[in-house]
Amino acid sequence: MGNLTDLKVGSIVKLKGDPFLIVYNQFMRKDAGKPVMRTKLKNLITGNTLDKTFLAGESFEFAEIERKKCQYLYKDDQEAHFMDNENFEQFDLQIEDIEDALKFLKDDEEVHVTFYEGKPIGVQAPIKVTLLITETTPGVKGDTATGGTKIATVETGAVINVPLFVKEGDKVVINTDTGAYDGRA
After folding, report:
1. Which residues pair with 109 in a beta bridge?
2. Is the distance from CB of 69 to CB of 103 less than 8 angstroms?
3. Considering only CA atoms, which of 46, 55, 39 is closest in space to residue 7?
4. What is the largest CA-CA distance in the chain?
5. Phi, psi of 136 (to 5 degrees)
6. At 56, which CATH number?
């Protein structure tokens, strides 16, 4: 159980059995009434957002979230397979639940996995990854002066925008938060 003032951005509360990350909060006192905390919450399992106002005296609890270093092993049609680096146990996550992170991961890459009540619920790719360009249109002489971009496919299958001078076989650095080209490797 907690106080209204404990509801801060970055805290994780448990509602209806799911963990919710507080992404916005505002403390308010209504006309001589009880104080309230308006929040915007993001469900860490489904990704959905929710607006919730907590009233003074309302009971809530914080969720126990654990982050572990794990190894991404491989994926099949529906699941991505991982191994816990501490106890070497293997586990799976549905591809549709983690596809944003997965599109930048190579087999055997180390990642951070979020666990809720002992079950894996999410994956965080490294902030920057180096990947090989496997397909893109060839550059034309003089392209570099225009500062334009073109589409390229990297070894994991992700499609990104790259500068016109990048060619097949180049290794590039990608920011996994934005999916944007960040430079040559």
Report:
1. 72
2. no
3. 39
4. 71
5. -165, 165
6. 2.30.30.30
* 24 and 70 together in one domain: no
Give the bridge partners for 72, in sequence order.
82, 109
pLDDT of residue 28: 87
The model's pTM = 0.74
Q: Which pairs with CB-CB distance under 8 Å and at least 24 residues apart come from 181-185?
A: 181/149, 182/128, 185/130
84 vs 72: CA distance, rounded Å? 9
Domain count, the chain: 3
pLDDT for position 107: 92
User: Both 50 and 84 in a single domain?
Assistant: no
Q: Do 101 and 140 have their domain in common?
A: no
Q: What is the CATH number of the domain that holds 158?
A: 2.40.50.140
* 8-state DSSP, 106: P
- Strand 159-163 to strand 149-154: parallel, antiparallel, or no bridges (unpaired)? antiparallel
Domain that holds residue 24: 4-62
CA neighbor of 25 nearest in space, from 16, 17, 36: 36
Query: What is the mean pLDDT for each group of 10 consecutive residues in the chain (185 residues)?
Result: 80 91 88 85 89 89 91 93 94 89 92 91 90 85 66 93 91 92 88
Considering 103, 124, 145, which residue would you say is the last residue of a domain?
124
Question: Could you tell me the CA-to-CA distances from 58 to 7, 16, 18, 35, 37 in Å, in that order?
Answer: 12, 14, 18, 11, 11
Q: Is residue 90 within 8 Å of 73, Cβ to Cβ? A: yes
